[in-house]
Write a structure and sequence with these properties.
The structure is a single chain. The chain is of the alpha+beta class. It has two domains: about 170 residues, Jelly Rolls, CATH 2.60.120.280; about 110 residues, Arc Repressor Mutant, subunit A, CATH 1.10.10.60. Helices cover about 45% and strands about 20% of the residues. The chain has eleven helices and ten strands. Strands 2-9-4-7-10 form a five-stranded antiparallel β-sheet, with helices on one face. It has a three-stranded antiparallel β-sheet with strand order 6-5-8, with no helix packed on it. Strands 1-3 form a two-stranded parallel sheet. Strand 5 and strand 6 form a beta hairpin. Helix 3 packs antiparallel against helix 4, helix 5 packs across helix 7 and helix 9 crosses helix 10. The longest helix has 19 residues. The protein is globular. InterPro entries: AraC-bd (IPR003313), Homeodomain-like_sf (IPR009057), HTH-like (IPR037923), HTH_AraC (IPR018060). This is Helix-turn-helix domain-containing protein.
């Protein structure tokens, strides 16, 4: 069961209490923390999405992370790269105690400074978990120590330095395990199943729509193909082979399902429902709904 998406504001309120909005705004789009000593059974992370990035350095063995539909295990210390909106949780062994460090930041934090999502650990099919030695742990720990010193400083450009330190974490991981950080190379049926699974994951994790202020990010076959780093024609061919349906058909069926649910269970306007499903023009949503359901949204709602 995937829990409700956690925002960075939710994270701060859970950690620090019921903070006023102006305090949360002052905390900003980046922060770094020590991982309090955690014992198994005392703190369970829910299997849920976050709308922020999180990079964690965790000491001790027997680390298991459920990430999307996969399970990763780190037999020693662990470096975890959590991607926004991909659900995950971290599972402790029965006798484990953990400590370490983590930083959290939004995509907005890197606006104008490059595309953080372009790195392999944040892409579908990449490996977001590294098992690292004690020596490598100490190497990465130094970067976190620099973060603590920088964020506590009065330096005017400290957030530029902190962006560089986040990138140092990313590049250190890539250099430590370059092979693991590449998306898996597969061929034939396995490749088709993998691409289909990733497509369906990307499609499904945009739902349910919980607010008229929420809008899906991926709606066209081309947008899904770009996210998966495959050609549109190849994606369409694979999905047709594995599901018997085209990319457009699968997207349309899922949008129609969500549209029916929103029309039935909310009092949102038809324009708001259309916008939340990626239709900026309400008439385009009405046309889409009529084509898929043989009736109009208003008539369906009754």
């Amino acid at each position: 069961m995937i829990g409700k998406t956690t925002s960075l504001s939710d994270f701060y309120r859970r950690k620090f209490g019921d903070l006023p909005s102006e305090i949360i705004a002052r905390i900003g789009q980046f922060n770094v923390f020590e991982l309090e000593d955690v014992a198994a059974g005392k703190a369970k992370m829910p299997y849920s999405r976050k709308d922020y990035f999180k990079i964690s350095l965790i000491s001790g063995g027997n680390n298991r992370v459920h990430y999307a539909d996969k399970t990763f295990e780190a037999e020693h210390n662990m470096l975890l790269f959590a991607n926004p909106q991909v659900p995950y949780n971290w599972e402790l062994g029965p006798d484990d105690r953990k400590s370490g460090f983590y930083c959290v930041f939004t995509e907005e934090f890197f606006k104008g400074y490059g595309n953080i999502r372009s790195y392999p650990m944040f892409q579908p099919g990449g490996t977001p978990i590294l098992s690292i030695t004690d020596e490598e742990f100490e190497q990465v720990k130094v970067i976190y120590q620099k973060m603590f010193a920088e964020i506590a400083s009065d330096y005017v450009f400290k957030y530029d330095v902190l962006r560089n330190l986040v990138m140092e974490l990313v590049h250190t991981a890539l250099k430590l395990r370059p092979a693991l950080m590449k998306p898996a190379e597969t061929t034939g049926a396995n490749a088709a199943e993998r691409i289909t699974g990733l497509f369906l994951e990307l499609l499904e994790r945009q739902f349910p729509i919980e607010s008229p202020m929420q809008s899906i990010k991926l709606r066209t076959p081309g947008e899904f193909a770009a996210q998966l780093s495959v050609h549109y024609n190849h994606l369409n061919k694979v999905l047709k082979e594995t599901t018997g349906k085209t990319t457009s058909r699968l997207i349309s069926e899922r949008l129609a399902l969500e549209a029916r649910a929103l029309l039935k269970h909310t009092d949102w306007s038809i324009a708001d429902i259309g916008w939340s499903l990626g239709f900026e023009d309400p008439s385009h949503f009405v046309k889409f709904f009529r084509k898929n359901e043989q009736t109009t949204p208003r008539a369906f709602r009754g």
